[in-house]
Design a protein that fits this description.
seven-stranded mixed sheet, Aspartate Aminotransferase, domain 2
Amino acid sequence: MVNHSHRLDRLPKYLFAKLDEAIEKARAMGVDVIDLGVGDPDMPTPAHIVEEMVSAVRNPTYHRYPSYAGMLAFRQAAARWYEQRFGVACDPASEVITLIGSKEGIAHIPLAFLDEGDVALVPDPAYPVYANATILAGGTPYAMPLLEDCGFLPELEAIPVEVRERAKLMFLNYPNNPTAAVADRQFFREVVEFAHEWDILVCHDNPYSEIAFDGYRAPSFLEVKGAKEVGIEFNSLSKTYNMTGWRIGYVLGSREAIAALGRVKTNIDSGAFEAVQMAGIAALTGPQECVQESVRVYAERRRLLLELTDALGLEAEPPKATFYVWARLPEGTRSMVYCERLLDGSGIVATPGVGFGEHGEGYIRLAMTQPTSRIEEAVRRVSQQPPS
């Protein structure tokens, strides 16, 4: 039998296997499971986007190989959206690349910048792809703890000098998954200064900027002076327009970094289906009332999830953005054990914080991505039978 690579051996163990098994067992036994664990919008993609896709897919022009960098029209739409939303100017020809979902670009960027033994600074807790893509590229992830006392922002000055000297990349993500924390422009200014000093490329993941509440407006990392010289920003249509299955996103910023990522892409993929890119143009340039409606729905679900955490006896801050609630467990409670008990006792699935890194231990994540009636049912179950 052919042995797999040592890179796979370096990947962290899949922590959710036991919980996944318990979910399947519960469903097989007829339990009505309410899954508040997965961050996948349940609302449909807006009709005008779907209609553009239907029209485009019938056009044989879009049936051939797409451009590796993406259609210029899509890149122009993305650049125009960024300028209108954030006041950030990017050249569509050289500072924007279309992605097959932002995850694809995040997974490929370490291949463009890390050699064996180089370091990527990754938040903890975090979206697992940051660390795992680093490992698959032969690099070494260095965990930057996101602690509640620090607003779930990394303490840059706590990073040892010897780590800074080896670091080539820094991954950030605000509004944040899983903590729902937000970052202000002053924090981004400090990141830019740090990146300039230590010659680090900042990779900011920004898919949740439009899922925001109570008048909050999330900034872009690229708004800060000097950011484009040391950074790139990934964005996606998945969360804003309920398009997770469509696999369409983009990255903007440093011309040199965009070119390097483009070289990787030309050797790995063949670009995003152009009919999907046409639908993406419709999303970015069309009516935005659909986004406001999604946020209105999420706001009601946020209220219900906060009722749920209260019924569970957990502490949780109302999130300013994202469709997640990050809830603190009682002192000494292990998140995986808690989630298993919640499933057994109430048929409710939550994501254990430890699955996002060791600094996520002691928390659970709840997603607003189930129909409102299902979240109401979760509240009813817990209210009728509070956890022991």
